[in-house]
Amino acid sequence: MTENPEGADSAAQNPPPGGRPEQKAGRRSRPHGKTHRRIAGALAIGLSLVTVGFLYTALAPQPQVAEAQPDAALIAQGEQLYNNTCITCHGANLQGEQDRGPSLIGVGDAAVYFQVSSGRMPMARQEAQAARKHPLPIFDPDTAEGRANLEALGAYIQVNGGGPITPAERGEALRGDDPGRGGTLYRLNCASCHNFTGVGGALSSGKYAPALAPASESQIYTAMQTGPQNMPRFSDQQLTPEEKRDIIAYIKSVNETNDPGGYSLLGLGPTAEGIFVFVFVMSGLVGFAIWLGAKS
């Protein structure tokens, strides 16, 4: 038997009209394979959607309003306090009144605590800025009655207006563990207005940054949450709760530290006494030189 390569090549190039059996089978099986792939893809997508939905339900943080709601009695007490002390300036529906008071929608329980516990609200008169004063006796945070009334008033405004919530911790529990980091954050975010040691300072249009020494830990924290007056609001994305606590630890450490060098000189900073002595001595030397020149 002799080989015929040319014939083989021509047969490969010119297959019979019916085609090869395996080609026919392949063509017949393609629609069946596409159907399988489509069904498998749809099942994969469905399974992925179900998995994502399950993970979101299990891991997504719940909104604050979905957490423990204040009881009806507490809200009713807060409404009565609001009607007695706040409604004239802030309106029956927290919408505010022109030339009297701003809207309370969105300010939250945190703003209520800061403004009322520090005596800034209710205001005695319309001024460029609400000054700190002793709070109303019914809202004094140093008494059990005052704390209960603050909680009730805040709960009423929180339910009807929403906004930031006062942290559950109080006092030294709001002080962080790293006042060194708090000092760095304070100098970056607060010192330009409140000075390096929290003594405050003047701003424009009759406003000012108040001294921080009289403020409690809760008042400092809620001020950072709500941004009263000219102060910016620091969300948890800008300053985390841990960073806020470290700032509070720094402020309290500065205010509670004695002055080992003598006079604090208004708390202008750690080198205030040296600068004062330098300026005083140099001025004396210049004056003495001028006196000698005039005498000669």
Automatic annotation (TrEMBL):
Reaction catalyzed: a quinol + 2 Fe(III)-[cytochrome c](out) = a quinone + 2 Fe(II)-[cytochrome c](out) + 2 H(+)(out)
Bias kind Basic residues: ranges: 26-35
Membrane topology: Multi-pass membrane protein
Entry keyword set: Cell membrane, Electron transport, Heme, Iron, Membrane, Metal-binding, Repeat, Respiratory chain, Translocase, Transmembrane, Transmembrane helix, Transport
Broad class of the protein's primary localization: membrane
Residue segments, region Disordered: 1-35
PROSITE patterns assigned: CYTC
Protein localization: Cell membrane
Subunit structure: The cytochrome bc1 complex is composed of a cytochrome b (QcrB), the Rieske iron-sulfur protein (QcrA) and a diheme cytochrome c (QcrC) subunit.
Protein name (database record): Cytochrome bc1 complex cytochrome c subunit
Species, as recorded: Pseudonocardia kongjuensis
